[in-house]
Amino acid sequence: MKKLYFLDFDRTLFNNHEFFQDFSTILAAYFEINGDDLHQIAKKHNQIRSTAKGIFSAFDMIREEYPQINIDDVKRIATQELAERTYVFADVERTLKIIDAANDDIHIVTVGTDEYQRFKFGFAPKLKYYPLTITQESKGKCLLQFKDTFNQYEKVVLVDDRGDTFDDEFRELGIDGIRLNRVDSTYSSKPTPPDVKEIATLIELVS
Fold this sequence. Notes:
By secondary structure, the protein is of the alpha/beta class. It has helices at residues 16-31, 35-48, 58-65, 71-81, 92-101, 114-121, 139-142, 168-171, and strands at 2-8, 105-111, 132-135, 153-160, 176-180, 197-199.
């Protein structure tokens, strides 16, 4: 039987920190949002995302704080300026190739707004072949919609960079949890539950 891997997007597959640095540079260069204001946006982002259920959208933040800025212009310029960039971590492509070669299934799951997450997904072209679910609920609650399919698989795994993703709602799914605690991870201070395996690189998932 096959295995099913639910993979988190931000900080698991996608280097969100590096993307936001470049995105912020564009906001400063083209839309005259100064550095202090950008730091405040980043600070608010961290406050909102302090729990696994926190929802953040840079586009919604700009609409709220800078209503004079046209979001379509932001998207257009950012897409042009960052067209040659990819923000997928270095270990992702190799890991996905191994999973694909084993004929196992991959499903990407991310918490956020549809608009902002799909925009970032556009800078991860290697991931476009895999199904993507965007939710504003916890991962555990979101994955309930797939529970009836779990018996088709030898093993079902959720991989996420946050220790608090693996909560009581997750445990009700009856699947395995793996916490990817990358070097210098934003949420490395959040403990890994004792019943959840911890890895430092994604390639460890298949090694």
